[in-house]
């Protein structure tokens, strides 16, 4: 019994020491300041990213309402209404299809957020960007496009998951009980897909070699943390935060920037967590 208490005490001391080191690392790397910069790049990337996704929708079984339903599930109401109104205006005035030359500029603009995130993660790992500009920017574009297709997959599964489940289970001869289980599984795929996205970003974005096992903890923290913070902030804004009375018509923009800021902090802390675990494993 005494040995067990000693083990528990040592374990708690290790956890406490790790948390203190993480907090110190977060403060030393000015995570809140970097998150403010990252929120700005996220804002610059938002509408080019949504334009690109919307342009791809005709090539999928999805429509624009399916896209907005996913955004509505996480974004505060004021922000959602502003984003939807702005995107509708942009798409009405936009001419040309997916293969137009304008899409190149759209992808480039959409990758600004990823490019900013790569620089922020380099700071978390205390490394300079050692890759050539074209290679680094190309990686940012590839990661952005990959994130878009994963996002489209996240849209497809909840919308058409029932039909897919019926096809699979009827083919192998399972009963309707398995369809009910599949119905529960397909709605849990959003956190899993978020984890995959963050895992890939934490693995490839920093200009240093990151091991699989050290990228996973930050990805788990970021995916769960982002969902919790998004829902919590959305509830706060809808119930308590009246930004319109303070900022007027800019209220929706302020809410959007605050959401991006909180999201950037979560992502940056995930990167700092991975970096600290990597340092610990190398000792």
TrEMBL record:
Record keyword Transmembrane present: yes
Cell compartment(s), UniProt: Cell membrane
Membrane topology qualifier: Multi-pass membrane protein
Top-rank taxon, per record: Bacteria
Spans through the membrane: 38-59, 97-118, 139-161, 181-205, 217-237, 249-270
A Pfam family annotated for this UniProt entry: Virul_fac_BrkB
UniProt keyword annotations, A-Z: Cell membrane, Membrane, Transmembrane, Transmembrane helix
NCBIfam families: yihY_not_rbn
Identification of the protein by name: Ribonuclease-like protein YfkH
Highest classification ranks of the organism: Bacteria, Bacillati, Bacillota, Bacilli, Bacillales
